[in-house]
Amino acid sequence: MNTLLLLLAGFFLPLFPLSMAFNWLLGRFSHPVIRVALILVWPQIGVLLVLAAGVPLSGSVFLWWGLITAVFYAWRLLTVRELGQWAAMLATSAFALTWVMAANGAWVVDLHASVIGFAVAPALLVVVAMLLERRLGAAYSGLVTGMARDIPRLAGLITVVLLAAMALPISPGFFVMLTMLFGSDPAPVIVALLTWLLWSWAGTRLLRDTVFGPRNDKNIADLPVAQAWAFAGVIVAAVVLNLIWTGV
Amino acid sequence: MVKLQWLIPLLPVISALLVHLLAGRIGKRVAQLSVGMGVVTFLVALWQIVVYIASDQGPSWLGIGASWGSVYLDPLSAIMALVVAGFSLIVHIYSVRYMAEEPGYARFFMLLDLMTASILLFVTAGDLITLLIAWHLVSVMMYFLLGQNTESRPGERYAFWTFLTYRIGDLPLVLAAVLLFQAYGALDFPTLFDRLMADPHTEVLGMPAAITAAGLIAVSAFAKSAQFPLHTWLPYTMDGPTPVSALMHAGIVNAGGIIINRFAPAFVNADGVLHLLFVVGLLTAVIGSVLMLTQNDIKKSLGYSTMGQMGFMIMECGVGAFSLAVFHLIAHGMFKATMFLSSGDLIGDARRHDDVPQNPLYTFLVDRKTGKPTRLPWLAIGLVTLIVPLVILLLAHWAVSPDFFQKQGAIVLLFFGWITGVQVLFATHRLDATNPVRMMLMILLSFALIVIGYSIIGHTFETFLYPDAAFREALYHAAGLDAVTFDGLVILLGLIVLVGWIGSYLASREESLFGNRFTELRLTLYSLISRELYIADLYERLSQALLEGSKRINVWMRWR
Fold it and tell me: Which chain B residue's Cα is nearest to A82?
C-alpha cells in the first residue's frame, strides 16, 4: 500500500480538506460541459490512483476519513441553495464513499462503475442548473417556487434528478449504495446510512423550495417536449444499464 | 401460478404509465382506466389466493434475475396482495368523484397506481433487494401523495415529516438485510429462512445475526407503523387528500406488522426483541389513546386512534400472536378506510351546512350527556359488564382451541379483550333507550357474536398463515416470560385497571379519588397531553440546531 499515492487519490476521491480543491474547481468553471466532464472524469483518476496503491484497504485510516468526509458534506448539503454548488457537494459526499468499496476490496470494474453510478445524479443536476439559469438568470432554490404547476415538465425533470440524488430506487445511486453496504462491516454501514439519510433530507428541502409552494406570476418557459423526452431517454438508459450491472 | 404473481405489482405500473401517457388525450377519463386496472389487479389477486388454497402445493418462489428480482407466493403474500388490491380499489373508486375538483387529477391517479404497485411489490417480494426497493418506494410515493396539492405549504411540510420518518425506518432494514446476507450468504427468502432456522445462532463480527437483524427490523417497523416516539408524523398527515389518508391509515401504516411477519423466522429466535415489541406496542397504544382524548379535529383524532391500533398490532407480535396481528391489521384497515372516507364526507357536509347534527348518539359521545337515566340498577350492570365478557371470551376460545390458555401471550390478549369488552358494555348501557333491558341484551348478543366470530376466524387464519404447529408454538414460547415476572405484571396491570375503574366511577359522580390535592398536577398533565407531549417540538428544535450548524460551517468555509 502506497500512502503517498493514496493521499494523492484523496484529491480525486475527495477527502476533506483536500476535497475543497474539487469544489473550488467546479465553482471556477461555469460551462456545463466542463462541469459534467469534471464530475465524470475527476473521480476516475482517483480510482486509478487507489488501484495503483493497492486494494483492499481494510483497516486503513482512509476508510474512516472517507466516511467522515461523506457525512460531513451531506450535513453541509442541508443549507446549500445554489444548484451547481449543491451538485458539487453531493458529488464530494458520494465520491468519498468510494473509499468504503476500496476498503472492501471491490473489483476494478465495480469501483469504476460505482463512481459512474454516483456521478449520474450530480451530472444531471449540473444540466438542470443550466436550464434554470437560462430561464431565471440563476439557479437558487427558493428563487421561484411552485414549478410543479407553472412548468410541469421541468419540475418533473428536477424531481426525478433529485430522487436520483437522494439515491432512491431505482436510480443508479441506490444500487451503488446497496452494493457497497452488502460488502461492508456494520460500523461503516451505519455512517454510510447516516449519509444517505442526510441526502434525503437535503433533497426534500430542495424540492420544497423549487417544485412545491405557491405559484409565481413570472412567465417562465417550460422544457420543450422533445427535450423532455430526450432527458427521459437518458434517465431510462442509466437505469437500465444499472439494472443489467446489478444482475437483473 | 407464480407467474401470475408478477402481474399483481406489474398491472398498477402499467396503469400508471397509461394514465400519464393518455392524460392529455382523454382527460379525466383516465380515472376510469385506473379503476379498471384496479379491478383487474384485484381479480388476479383473488384468483391467485383461490388457486393457492385449492392446489395445496405450498409456497413457491420465482426470480427473473441472476442476483435479485423475485416474487414469493406464500399465505402471507397471497392474503396481503388481496387485501392491498381491495383497499386500493375502494380508494380508487372513491377518488374518482372526490378528487374531481382538485388540481393534478391525472397525477393523483398515476401516483395512486404507483403507490399500489410499491405496496404490492413489498408484500410479494421474494428476496432482500426486491423487498428493500419496495420498502424505499413506499416512502417516496407517500411523500408525493401527501404533497398532492403542491401549493399547500402545510401539506408539503407534513409530507416531509412523514418522508423523513419513513427514511429513518428504511435504513435499519438495509442494515438488517446486510447482516442477514453476510451471516447466511443468501438473498432469496426460501434459502435465507431455511439457513436461518437451521443455524439461528450464527454470528457476524461477534453479534448474533438473527437477534440483531430482528431488532433492526423492529426499528423499521416502529417508524413505518408510527410507534412511540416515532409517531409524530401520523396525526399531521391530514393535510393530504382524504383518499390518501384512508389508504395510509387502512394500509400503508400496517407495513410494520407485515415486515415483522415476513421475518418471523428471525423473530422466533429473538425472544428479547419480542419483549421489546410488546413494551413499545403497549406504550404506543396507551399514549395514542390518551392523546386522542384531547383532539377536537375528527381526522387528527382518527390519526391518534390509528396510532393506538398500531400499538396493539405491534403488541400482538410481541406476545407471539403474529397471525392475529395480520388479522387485526386487515380488520382495522377495513373499518379505518371506511371511517376516513366517511369523515371526508362529514367535513364536506359540515362546510356546507354549519348546523351541528343533533341525535342521541351525538349527544352521548360529544356532549357527554346521557339521555333519560336507565332503569337498570348500577350494581347489576356493573356485574354483568364484568362477568359476561370474561365468560364469552373464555368459552369462545376454549371452543376453538382448548390449548390456547397454556400460552402466556394468549392470556395477555384475553386480558386486553376482557377490559375492552367491559369498557364497551359499561359505556353503552347508559345510551338512551325506551327498553333498556332489551337494548342491553342486544348489546350482549352483538358482543358474543363478535367475539365468537373473531375467535373462529382468528384461529382459522392462524393455521392458514402458519400451518406448522411447531412454529406457532415456538413463536408463543419465544414471547414467554418467566412465571414470577408474568404473574407480577398481571397483578400490577389488574391493580392499574381497578384504580382506573374506581376513578372513572367517581368521575361519573363528579367526585375525585384525591379531592383537589392534585389539581395542579392534573392541569400540567392535561397541558402536556394537549401539546402532544412536546415530542414534535423537540424534533423541530433538534433539526433547527442541525440546520443552523450546517449554515455556520458553510459560511465559515466559504461554501467549499
Answer: B559
Instruction: Return d(Cα B192, Cα B412) in angstroms, integer.
Output: 32
Determine, for residues A212 and B174 on separate chains, whether the beta-carbon distance falls below 8 Å. Answer: no
Tell which of A16, A73, A76, A229 to mutate to test the B interface (max B CBs under 10 Å).
A76
Q: Tens of pLDDT along chain B (560 residues)? A: 557 788 999 999 999 999 999 988 888 889 999 999 999 999 999 999 999 999 888 899 988 877 788 999 999 999 999 999 999 999 999 899 888 888 889 999 999 999 999 999 999 999 999 999 999 999 999 999 999 888 888 888 889 999 999 999 999 999 999 999 999 999 999 999 999 999 999 998 788 999 999 999 999 999 999 999 999 888 877 777 888 888 888 788 889 999 999 999 999 998 889 999 999 999 999 999 888 888 877 778 888 888 998 999 999 999 888 988 898 888 888 877 777 777 666 666 666 665 655 566 666 656 555 555 555 666 777 777 788 888 888 888 887 777 777 777 777 778 888 888 887 777 776 666 667 778 778 888 888 888 888 888 888 888 899 999 899 889 888 888 888 888 888 888 888 888 887 877 777 677 776 777 778 888 888 888 888 889 989 999 999 999 999 999 999 998 88
Q: Do A20 and B147 touch (CB under 8 A)?
A: no
Residue of A nearest to B181 (CA): A182
Determine, for residues A20 and B179 on separate chains, whether the beta-carbon distance falls below 8 Å: no
Q: In one letter, which amino acid is B187?
A: L
Residue recorded with cell 442548473: A129
A135 touches chain B (CB under 8 A): no
Helix ranges (DSSP H) in B512-556: 519-530, 535-556
The C-alpha cell at B421 is: 369488552
Give the minimum alpha-carbon distance from A38 to chain B in angstroms, rounded to a whole number. 16
Specify the pTM. 0.90
For B154, which residue in chain A has the nearest alpha carbon?
A: A213
Phi-psi group of B136: left, alpha or beta (phi > 0 → left; psi -120 to 50 → alpha; rest → beta): alpha
Q: Treating both helix axes as pointing N-terminal to C-terminal, what angle do B75-98 and B30-55 enclose, rounded to 10 degrees?
A: 160
Residue of A nearest to B153 (CA): A213
Cα torsion B540, B545, B551, B554: sign: negative
Neighbours of B133 (CB within 10 A): 23
Cα separation, B472 vs B268, in Å, equals 9
The shortest C-alpha distance from B65 to chain A (Å) reads 4
- Cell numbers placing B150: 403542491
CA–CA separation, B298 and B348 (whole Å): 12
A150 touches A216 (CB < 8 A): yes
Length of chain A: 248
Q: Is A105 left (phi over 0), alpha (psi -120 to 50) or beta?
A: left
Interface contact flag, B167 A78, Cβ < 8 Å: no
CA of A22 to nearest chain B CA: how many angstroms apart?
9
CB contact under 8 A, A201 and B179: no
> Which residues in B lie closer than 8 A to residue A149 (C-beta atoms)?
103, 150-151
Interface contacts A/B by beta carbons within 8 Å: 112
Are B160 and B177 spatial neighbours (Cβ–Cβ below 8 Å)? no
Nearest CA in chain B to A28: B560
Q: Backbone phi, then psi, for B495, in 5-degree steps?
A: -65, -40
Interface test with B, best of A22, A144, A248 (most B CBs within 10 A): A248
Measured distance CA(B427)–CA(B141) in Å, rounded: 41
Query: Which neighbouring-strand residues pair with B18?
Result: none
CA distance A78 to A86: 9
Picking from B437, B121, B61, the residue whose alpha carbon sits closest to that of residue B258 is B121
**Residue A228, Cα to own-chain centre: how many angstroms?**
21
Q: Which chain B positions have a beta carbon within 8 Å of A77's beta carbon?
A: 550
